Amino acid sequence: MGGWLFDPAHWSGPTGIPVRLLEHLGYTLLTLLIAAVIAVPLGAFVGHTGKGGFVIVGLSNVLRALPTTAVLILVVLWAGLGDFPVYVALVLLAIPPIMAGTYAGIRAVDPVTVDAARGVGMRESGVLLNVEIPNALPLIFGGFRGAALQVVATATIAAYTGAGGLGRFVFDGLALQEFGQMLAGAVLVALLAVLVDLGFAGLQRLTVSPGLRPVGTGGKK
Amino acid sequence: MTWIFENWDRFWEVTEVHLRLSVVPVLIGFVLSIPLGWVASRSATARAILFPLANILFTIPSIALIVITPVLLGVKILDEINVIVPLVIYTVALMVRAVADALSAVPGHVTAAANAMGFRPVRRFLTVDFPLALPVTIAGLRVATVSNISMVSVGALVGLGGYGQLFTEGYQTDNSAKVFAGLIGTVVLAALADGLLLLIGRVLTPWARAGR
Tens of pLDDT along A14-52? Predict the structure, then answer.
């Protein structure tokens, strides 16, 4: 069954595995960027002010139940084929975990720390940007990694409406009844998901203050 | 919305299929995750195997699992089992952790008291540990149910039933009202199932609200 995946002919050209892999990665990263621009400020505002928490929870629940396939198809019918519908569907998918992670992260910062920051004369913007967000980073990253896994997995569906990415192999294989190609697509998506998660784990190690590393993991309690 | 009322028989038919394809895996997955979660809550070795495995299973995209399952099981691609098996896998992957966390959170003095009163392991699990673990378990079950209801639609991309059929048919016939009807159906079904589980949780754990 691995024959399709390791055939050199499938590793070159404009419809080869490297091109589809990069398309898939492109969908994922741009989706996460757009979702971050929307979800992080919202989550941070609500977390910082403590106002509107129920809106965040309610919005997250509704968005979570939204079937991505339906959103994709509706936007295609409305705006035509292309990458735009893919981004709309995937961004809606990525917003809830990122928003919830940011909100929960900022709410979980020790109030004593926030109080101390105000006590030394920080403005509200300084409290949020220099104290709350750095302290909330582990949970914010948690939200991003959850979103990334979902987006990598779901970007596969983009190929149903003719877009690119690794889903092409799944749907083309299905149309041609080539199970080797379908399987190759599925395996590549799972591999990409693991790689993207590792990338975020590395980024997390680089950016999160060592003082915030979880205590007791890896050692005995 | 008018599509739903004008095509009520069809809408009800896909609703029934959708409900069956999402509820059956949740039930099977839930039952399987109880012993697995129990083992994970007792043994660090089991945790070290089950939790990473659950994470890996979760990264496999649903469409991929749905197309691979028939090859692995040797069944036809239009068999409903091809949606049920992947959703059982996702449910177990999610619920093992929830059940293990919930059981680990049962206070030690409570289990010690039950032991001292002469409860044997099975009876202690059924009448003490498991009921106390219910709130966290049901929270996990709500997430699993909502995501299953949303994921069943993916099966329609390979020709299986449920609201997803309205999506693919609507796409092929350029009928956005039909797609929208399926979307509304999915969201309403998810909200109803979520509310029902919340209610069941409240009825089963009256002590959780005592003394407030």
Answer: 888 999 999 999 999 999 999 999 999 999 999 888 887
**B158 pLDDT above the threshold of 90:** no
Which pTM was predicted? 0.84
Q: How many CB atoms lie within 10 A of CB A6?
A: 9
CATH topology for the B11-206 domain: MetI-like fold (1.10.3720)
**Cβ contact, residue pair A66, B187, below 8 Å:** yes
* pLDDT of A215: 53
Q: What type of residue is A176?
A: L
What region does A217 belong to: left with phi over 0, alpha with psi -120 to 50, or beta?
A: beta
Answer whether B61 sits within 8 Å of A156, measured CB to CB: yes
CB neighbourhood size of B158 (10 A): 20
C-alpha gyration radius of chain B: 20
**Partner A, chain B 155-194, Cβ-Cβ below 8 Å:** 156-158, 163-164, 167-168, 170-171, 174, 176, 179-180, 182-183, 186-187, 190-191, 194
Closest residue in B to A196 (Cα) is: B59
Nearest to A180 by CA among B75, B159, B67: B67
Distance CA A172, CA A10 (A): 13
Query: What does pLDDT average to over chain A?
Result: 87
Q: Is the pLDDT of residue B58 over 80?
A: no
Chain A environment of B149 (Cβ under 8 Å)? 65
Q: Which residues have a Cβ under 8 Å from the Cβ of A179 and sit 6 or more positions away?
A: A1, A173, B67, B71
Burial class (CB within 10 angstroms; exposed 0-12, middle 13-18, buried 19+) of A47? buried
Domain boundaries in chain B?
11-206
CB contact under 8 A, A67 and B65: no
**pLDDT tens per residue, range A152-162:** 989 998 898 88
- In this predicted structure, the answer to whether residue B11 has a pLDDT above a threshold of 50 is yes
Look at A121-125, A211-215, B97-101, B144-148 and tell me which has the smallest mean pLDDT.
A211-215
Decide: A79 and A85 in contact? Cβ < 8 Å.
Answer: yes
Give the CA angle between residues A113, A147, A72 to the nearest 5°.
Answer: 140
Nearest-angstrom CA–CA distance, A121 and A126: 9
